[in-house]
Amino acid sequence: EVQLLESGGTVVQPGGSLRLSCAASGFTFSSYVMNWVRQAPGKGLEWVSGISAIGDTTFYADSVKGRFTISRDNSKNMVFLEMNSLRAEDTAVYYCAKDRLERRPNWFDPWGQGTLVTVSS
Amino acid sequence: DIQMTQSPPSLSASVGDRVTITCRASQSISSYLNWYQQKAGKAPRLLIYAVSSLKSEVPSRFSGSGSGTEFTLSISSLQPEDFATYYCQQNYDVPPTFGGGTKVEVK
Question: Helix (H, G, I), strand (E, B), or coil: what is residue A19?
Answer without folding.
Answer: strand
